[in-house]
Amino acid sequence: MKKLLTAVTAAGSGLLGASLASKPGSRRFHALTASVAATWFAGARAAGPVPRGRTAVVQPVLAGAGAFGGFYGCALVARRIPLLRRAITGVLGHAHHGSTPTVVTTTLVTGAAEEIFFRGTLYDAFGARTSTAMYVLSTTATRNPALVLASATMGTLFTLQRRWGGGVQAPLLTHVTWSALMISFLPRLFPPQDSSTGGVGP
């Protein structure tokens, strides 16, 4: 089973890299991001059910909101660092050029799929540290330093939420809350004219 999950992680990572390298707003981007989410869901399903854990809602949502606040502050600083500014605007180009409802839906569904796979299936199969490391490694396929840094920070928080909640509900709610706030407010800090029209690399 571990070999299968490792293969699924590699496949999903490759699709993730290809999706973010696609032209913002293109059909290819939406098709590939849907494939990423489908890969995570399929991998989790193949391994069997994942624990739901506690039914708490307030704490995970507050954790996601608090994480957004920290990232927003960091984004204000990142705007002054060319390498990070280009990396972030490259990612947010998809938010600026795509249909807002579609982009938001894609972001939230993919985030939920990540939690079910990484904090559910991989956590149970490999443990907290290895599953977090695999989560961070999966984002290196994007070749985007901002995403890698974010995955390291949030991956650690999501893992702590999984440990606290005993299942995927807590990290899933934290992830979805954080993602919804990020996609709603962060694009305003990085207008589209600052980003390239294709790709996410610096």
Which series of helices and strands comes N to C? HHHHHHHH
- The averaged pLDDT comes out at 92
Helix content: over 70%
Q: Spans of 5+ residues with little confidence (pLDDT < 50)?
A: 194-202
Strand composition percent: under 5%
Rg, Å, rounded = 16 Å
Number of strands: 0
Major sheet size, sense and barrel closure? none
Structural class: mainly alpha
User: How many separate domains?
Assistant: 1
Overall 3D form: globular
Number of helices: 8
Terminal Cα span: 37 Å
Structure description:
There is one protein chain. The chain has 202 residues and is mostly helical. It has one domain. It has helices at residues 2-20, 27-47, 58-78, 82-97, 100-126, 128-139, 145-165, 169-185. Helix 1 runs antiparallel to helix 2 (27-47) and helix 6 runs antiparallel to helix 7. The N and C termini lie far apart (37 Å).
